[in-house]
Design brief:
- The chain is an alpha/beta fold and 165 residues long.
- It has a single domain, classed as 3-Layer(aba) Sandwich (Glutaredoxin), CATH 3.40.30.10.
- It has 5 helices and 5 strands; from the N terminus they run αβαβαβαββα.
- It has a 5-stranded mixed sheet.
- Helix 2 links the parallel strand 1 and strand 2.
- The longest helix has 17 residues.
Length: 165
């Protein structure tokens, strides 16, 4: 019985390489974006509230979320909020075509080698991580559920903005 359980565990680890790593959770420090091997220009994040959104060109909910994140960036930028979209497409052309079509109003970088998405163990596309000014995860949204996600993210941002620096 123990041998069977071990074989199952090995198979699951082979099929789902992230299965043995723990997902990032609320309260954890987010990995350093500057050293994650991302392609593109990262905006200034020091002392700011940051929303990191993982997306892929093949993801329909990702397409739906982009207009909201663009509006959010425009509305909250002056108050110290930065939104960064992290595309996880394996090819640069798929990444570039998606951005050209949707023209986001926020920074977008390419996790071409998928180092960051693996380090974070992102559960689904899209998934966003709201970070406080110290870089700790304060909220996680797996998936995009339209108005419900928008209400929750706005409320969480307002809560973080109300905290003293």
């Amino acid at each position: 019985m123990m041998r069977h359980a071990l074989l199952v565990l090995i198979c699951v680890a082979g099929i789902f390489p992230g299965a043995l790593r723990a997902e990032l959770k609320v309260g954890d420090s987010f990995p350093d974006l500057a050293t994650a091997g991302l392609v593109g220009t990262l905006p200034e994040r020091s002392g700011k509230i940051v929303l990191v959104d993982f997306w892929a060109s093949w993801c329909a909910p990702c397409k739906e979320s982009f207009p909201f994140y663009s509006r959010l960036q425009q509305e909250y930028a002056a108050r110290g909020v930065v939104i960064i979209g992290v595309g996880v497409d394996e090819t640069a052309p798929a990444f570039a075509a998606f951005l050209k079509k949707l023209n986001p109003g926020f920074a977008a970088v390419h996790d071409r080698e998928q180092k960051l998405v693996r380090a974070v163990t992102v559960p689904t596309m899209p998934t966003s991580y709201l970070l406080d000014r110290a870089g700790r995860v304060r909220a996680i949204h797996d998936g995009y559920r339209g108005a419900a996600t928008e209400r929750a993210v706005r409320q969480e941002i307002e809560t973080l903005l109300a905290e003293t620096k």
